[in-house]
Amino acid sequence: MKKIFIDGKDGTTGLKIYSRFEKRDDIELLLIDPEKRKDTRERARLINESDYTFLCLPDAASIEAVSLVENPDVTILDTSTAHRTNPAWAYGFPELSNKHREGVESSKRIAVPGCYASGFNSIVHPLVANGFIGRDYDVTCFAVSGYTGAGKKGIAQYEDENRDKELDSPRLYALTQEHKHLREMKAVSGLLREPIFAPMVCDYPQGMVVTVPLYTDKMNKKYTLSDIREMFCEHYAGSDIVKVRELGYTQGMIASNTFADRDDMEIEINGNEERILITSRFDNLGKGASGAAIQCLNIAMGIDEKTGLNIGD
Questions:
Q1: Residue 152, SS3 per DSSP
Q2: pLDDT by residue (tens digit) across 55-80?
Q3: Which residue of the set 56, 115, 141, 296 is catalytic?
Q4: β-strand 109-111 against 75-78: which pairing, if any?
């Protein structure tokens, strides 16, 4: 039985990870005394007694936690942004390539992807890796997310009975183009520069749609919708978690909240001969956070990667 410690269990992602272990009998959870959750010595003890430690902490605290590791057999799964572009860490999106999967299987240091970055890279990485667009393509990205992606403070604002009226509407943010996921989006996708990114937080709890628009005449050659879908199908062949839908799958509108509490992701290709929209839909707290973390744990443990996950049709 493997020993698991969650450093930062009381945060949004930490609580979601913790709840997923309630029905599992193949792990032992190491729990910290609530009064000692910021005690460095106690945290260090539990980290080094564990087989696997999840870090659900701000970046600086995650970096500090890694410095406490003395047991070479401990595997760290970091859900913060601190190590996602560090080449010494495996990037925890195993469907992107065999190299990504092998990294999760063998590494003692796994960086769990960010939510927006997961949707973006699920689209752009295959496009670049398969030569459909150049690394110098001027990529733009529009995305909407439920408010749980804003963390405990943001959730409290949205769920306050006396909240500001502006929270009733979608809100565009990252106006200075300095969103914390941009470095990860560029590095993992293979682009030469960061995309123009327009994210919106909306008045519903969970779910996310990330969209990348393309001009077909700006791609490496003139591809049809069928060409692009076929490439994505081949890229994600064999995956039960990342699904590529048939053309025309959605008639009308793509809702962003329909994958709440699921841990899989779906990709759709829509548009016409000149302009294409590629969308990735998933739960920002599922494949975009805790679900991805559990998937990485399962792979690292050498068990069915879907163990404890909620996978839809």
A1: helix
A2: 999 999 999 999 999 999 999 999 99
A3: 115
A4: parallel
